[in-house]
UniProtKB/TrEMBL annotation:
Biological classification of the source: Bacteria, Pseudomonadati, Pseudomonadota, Gammaproteobacteria, Chromatiales
Organism whose genome encodes this protein: Spiribacter roseus
Domain of life: Bacteria
Designated name of the protein: lactoylglutathione lyase
Listed NCBIfam families: glyox_I
Keyword field contains Lyase: yes
Keywords assigned by UniProt, alphabetized: Lyase, Metal-binding, Nickel, Zinc
């Protein structure tokens, strides 16, 4: 029988028919300075910006990013088609910039990990965790936890320019995780 879902109290055994076709498109994080954040996400994590949407009447911009993968379909060049394409993808990161926030010296976003806890982190998988750790060191990235620290080995946490946590994993190292 094909896998559908692990079962725990509260898990609905079969997917409701009305939800067929639903997909997680993106998660959103607020950013203070888009230039600084985009440099981090594109230059350090290798993401690309698929689409920027500006909402002048509301004074904010949205940046939709992904980690391009081999064999992934190519985004359309036409901006309207690319907008539709972007909202049909899976696992994107939306960075939201409220205009003028970069000029507020007191503005800080809650990282979700300090009290009161809430949102925790996003996760990026890498092909070689040791090489990624060296790359982050070479680029002055702040580590919250290195892969050899703590009880949960082979998992790293870094901090982005706004203080959000990013988990870094090498999938091949995680086969025994949670056993």
């Amino acid at each position: 029988m094909p896998f559908t879902s692990e079962q725990y109290p509260g898990v609905v055994e079969s997917r409701p028919e009305a939800t067929r076709g639903f997909a997680l498109n993106h998660s959103m994080m607020r950013i203070k300075d888009p230039e600084r954040s985009l440099a981090f996400y594109t230059g350090v994590l290798g993401m690309r910006v698929l689409r920027r949407l500006d909402f002048e009447e509301l004074n904010f911009s949205l940046y939709f990013l992904d980690c391009p993968t081999e064999g992934q379909s190519t985004p359309p060049s036409d901006v309207c088609e690319r907008t539709v394409w972007t909202f049909s993808q899976r696992g994107l990161l939306e960075l939201t910039h409220n205009w003028g926030s970069e000029d507020d010296p007191d503005l800080q976003f809650h990282d979700g990990n300090s009290e009161p806890q809430g949102f925790g982190h996003i996760c990026v998988s890498v092909p070689d965790l040791d090489a990624a750790e060296r790359w982050f060191d070479d680029n002055g990235v702040e580590f919250i936890k290195r892969p050899d620290q703590g009880k949960l080995t082979d998992v790293a946490f870094i901090r982005d320019p706004d203080g959000y946590w990013i988990e870094i994993v090498e999938p091949a190292r995680l086969s025994d995780l949670g056993r």
